[in-house]
Fold HTH tetR-type domain-containing protein.
Amino acid sequence: MDERQEKQTGAGRPRSRKALEAVMTATLNLLKTTSYNQLTMERIAKEAGVGKPTLYRWWSGVPFIVMEALMLQAESEIGSPDTGQLISDVHQYLKQTFRSLTEGTGETVRSLMAEAQLNPDFAGVFRETFISSRRQTLIRILERGVQRGELPQNADLELIADLCYGPMWYRLLNRHAALDETFAASLVSYLFDSDGR
Amino acid sequence: MDERQEKQTGAGRPRSRKALEAVMTATLNLLKTTSYNQLTMERIAKEAGVGKPTLYRWWSGVPFIVMEALMLQAESEIGSPDTGQLISDVHQYLKQTFRSLTEGTGETVRSLMAEAQLNPDFAGVFRETFISSRRQTLIRILERGVQRGELPQNADLELIADLCYGPMWYRLLNRHAALDETFAASLVSYLFDSDGR
Amino acid sequence: MDERQEKQTGAGRPRSRKALEAVMTATLNLLKTTSYNQLTMERIAKEAGVGKPTLYRWWSGVPFIVMEALMLQAESEIGSPDTGQLISDVHQYLKQTFRSLTEGTGETVRSLMAEAQLNPDFAGVFRETFISSRRQTLIRILERGVQRGELPQNADLELIADLCYGPMWYRLLNRHAALDETFAASLVSYLFDSDGR
Amino acid sequence: MDERQEKQTGAGRPRSRKALEAVMTATLNLLKTTSYNQLTMERIAKEAGVGKPTLYRWWSGVPFIVMEALMLQAESEIGSPDTGQLISDVHQYLKQTFRSLTEGTGETVRSLMAEAQLNPDFAGVFRETFISSRRQTLIRILERGVQRGELPQNADLELIADLCYGPMWYRLLNRHAALDETFAASLVSYLFDSDGR
DNA sequence: TATTAAGCGAGACGGTACGTCTTGTCTTGGA
DNA sequence: TCCAAGACAAGACGTACCGTCTCGCTTAATA
């Protein structure tokens, strides 16, 4: 994922791990006190005590830095539950995800999704790095459901994934209702429990 | 929708209809050839042959202009189908909406949603003016379904609306799959047809 | 000097004397609280409760209004002394002029002179209307001195006028020293009193 | 005269000599074809091929740039004559000064003096940098006259300086008569030659 | 151990867009 | 018929960031 610290062919000073860490820390600090759209390369550089060229050497813009900082922070915060039952796996997973968004990173995640719409260079990276991995986790949970016979062999897992993630993103972005446990329960119930209708 | 030209309390030159129209036209023209995030107040002013202060007198920024232009263009493009049957009403409505997004305004709508994430001043206006009206249309369709007995009296219409709009926005923003007729059909089938699973 | 309030030939609403007076009053009021270069046509119009086009109908810019207001205010504030003696006439006249500048209009007069440098349209009017009349007053005092034999028949009165007014303007504009009575006395003494050297 | 390029405390890209020179050249060029009050920061930036922030980094406005350009151009154009005689020294000095103003920089100098009246930030700098140095030159000439006994020990040199510079500025600003050699001669004669009256 | 070249901070650079201000003209409706 | 109110096109203002560049200092692997 990161070919940056290798090479080191001949002489010369190696790249400073310290600078990278300072940037990540500074970014997370700034996100605590200011909103995403107030972040600029200049501010991050100043806060991290790092030169702008250093920033540009390793990242091509603010959203790339923020995404990396976010993934570094949230690393393995959300696991993949395996209770042996589809409904409770999905329920668990959604609850975890909602909580993570509500309590912490929601604002920033919203901003990154927004950035991905406006910045084509970032869009691809964001989807393949950030979104895709989480979607895969859900798809794997669903696949286990198919194996167990809880879903039909020909179930459209992509559609079901959209039906789980779609409403989540919709509420996250549109803010017309909370991403709380009630919502997770209703969602799971409506989607998987025939009696829930 | 626009109470501005009514103010006209006493004296004073009234708002120039010509300038307003020039701005709307220029904005739509620019959107045809450039992407949303290349739009600037200055470019719009120049294209419309209008002074910047005139722009700022009536709109507080690019997204507000774009939203108004979009609503003016799409006025009544999407109707509210009434076939007498819930499933086909929803199907019809989603198909219409998807087509409108796919063929024309999708790019710009995505950008406005993104803007709403990054620009708090715009967020409220966007949701209350743009999103809300369309959501109401769907809710009304669902209510008719309840009246006809196609949905139970206590059905959670807000949840169902989220399950319709959520996946749409998710695909629009995340671009991992098309907003085509197949998707509309699958969605409706999964949500309302017990045999569709 | 002012052919504006006459005519009133046929029908129609007569021109408002009230508006003119309001402009003059408003201008003088504004000059009490703000500096000349903060004056704008718009601010004067607002303060006077007058439309901008009305302002432009009668004056072509801020300095023209200010000059008229100033002359209206200072009308006959400075007389032409006639003590029967050249030296005391000039001394008297300079003292009067210095006092008027120091106590009141100095700031504004400085600004008008500055404006005349930057604004060719104003330059001519300013010199012919404002400066010239005062210069003539001094020249007349000097001529009386020639008639009385206090100055030689071939005295260069223009040069002497420059020697009186020049230092005054120089100190007014350059502010390196005060325009006080001592200065008036020294000036007269150096210029007219052979023993004063 | 310019302690800016010496700062260079530690790191950082040093001030670009090229940019500085381009600005000076562009300013002098523009002054040849347009009048001072048509000069704007934007035009200078464009003509010099320099960004506006670079201009504002080093100068706080148009008059500051113009003054620097003028001083750079006129550097040591006017010397301090020393003929051994007061009258001819002053005469020489005034002739030089008049010629410089008449042939070249007069227009711009007038404008700067005007600017100093309207712009308090500029006023101080202008007087201390531009005016003061020239006044000192004249005062030194007069002091030599005192040492030689051509002027009394207690002569008021400041007054005499005002009597030389005052009429010059008066004619420069008021334009009622030329700044020619005749004027220089009359002035010197009236001020220093008892028989000249 | 000394050399040496890359990485580093700082920050100036040419640009672009911002949102505000003022100018002088115009267009209404009310008096 | 004249006016106040104020909208209009134009364009300069001074600021904030952008992404690139040029410095001189620091630092660690190579020789």
Chain D is about 70% helix and 0% strand. Chain D has a mean pLDDT of 88. The CA atoms of residues 1 and 129 of chain D lie 9 Å apart.
